[in-house]
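Sharing a chain and its predicted structure for anyone who wants a worked example. Both blocks are below, sequence first, tokens second.
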Amino acid sequence: MATLTTQKQYSDINFNFVPNPLTGDLAKVHNVQAVKQAMKTLVLYHFYQKPFHPEIGCSAGRMLFENTNGFTTHRLNRSIEDVIRKYEPRVSLERVHSQFDNSISGYYISIHFHINNIPNEITLDFILQRH
């Protein structure tokens, strides 16, 4: 007897705020892109920035202004890991890698993870830099 499995669908608004050309509604991102967008948002949140949830945040932005050394990089990775493991239940985190680049005064961040019930490893890459 064959079993029917349904894969959970995730969606969110596109943070580029591009309207759908036909309906004028905000465009959506789905599945992998929605989860990646949520994870990046978690990393970029400062504590006390999210209304009614001051406990949600990551100290990654603060670390951009500290001396760049192995200890700071380790703390940055740990901070990213902690916020994702605590507030993103849709993923299983594999590893976080960051590398400072003087030319951009920021870090290249690479987050490797699995979305629950999807076997492929997914990577989220972005730049975290001072503004």
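Comments welcome. The helical segments are 31-44, 60-63, 70-87.
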